[in-house]
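[job 0417] fold request received: Site-specific integrase
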Amino acid sequence: MDEINDKKLSQRSKKHIYRILSSALSKGKRYGIKEDIMEDIEAPKVGKQEIEYWTNHEVELFMQNLNSKNHALPILLSLATGMRRGEVLGLRWSKIDFDNKVISVTHQLKKDNEGIWELSPQLKTSSSYRTMDIDDETIKILETINDNRIKIN
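[job 0417] inference complete; emitting structure tokens
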């Protein structure tokens, strides 16, 4: 385990390796392995990792320096709502309620078994289906883009 602890692995990975070794060696007794050396080794602790967030200033700098304006809206939605990439890309205009300033997450864009992108009503978990509030600034941006989209069509 010392070699594993010396490697640059996350605590979660180290604990996973520990569990695999421990399980294999404890079952090894059935096959003639006399000693389970993992019995005396303490499992690595998986501590809570503090999540670092961008400040508003960092978000503004990022958005200003975005090389592709095609990516601006999906990134803005991810930052403003916490939606996953597939959820953002699977969002339909009909799922944005501009009057009540909410988005309904009901679909995602994902690859099928052949690697072809498809719009899917199946989200990652049952709690992924949700309705979320949108801040005033984001709703204004969405309204402007939607108005331009309607004019073009």
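[job 0417] notes: The radius of gyration is 24 Å. Helices lie at 2-6, 11-28, 56-64, 72-81, 85-89, 136-152.
[job 0417] exit 0
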